[in-house]
Amino acid sequence: MSESVFSDQSWFLWEPLIEEVRPKGKTPPKNLRRTISAIFWRHQNGAKWRALPSEFGLWWIAAQLFIRWSKLGVWQRLFDRVSRKDPALGMVFLDGTIIRAHHKAAGAAKKGDTQEARETVKFLAAHMEDLVPSSAA
Questions:
Q1: Domain residue spans in the chain?
Q2: Where is the Insertion element IS402-like domain (predicted)?
Q3: Vertex 123, ends 122 and 129: CA angle to 5°?
Q4: What pTM was computed for the model?
């Protein structure tokens, strides 16, 4: 297994988008490609954080970055940037006849809830290669 779920061509397109939306701290994150790959891999496969393959580094670094960026709205900003680059990715159609709520679904989201960010990252991960022009792939 390679260390990254991004091909070199797709990372070339994703990196500026991620740099544009990520919070700027005192020190830039180390191995950002590997960490973002770990987050995308986890959401593509539905695995637990602790089940991340060792090629992606320490699992808690990816989990911590995902949660921190979720609370700061980074994933939504990234989704907005990606949608502007390829408008087809921003189009989602839902048929209301098949959407059912669980009987315990009443109530507001809990503070720090990352469910919306999970869905956004899952969508981004599923369409990660769609930004790469077909002639380059």
A1: 8-98+109-131
A2: 7-79
A3: 105
A4: 0.72
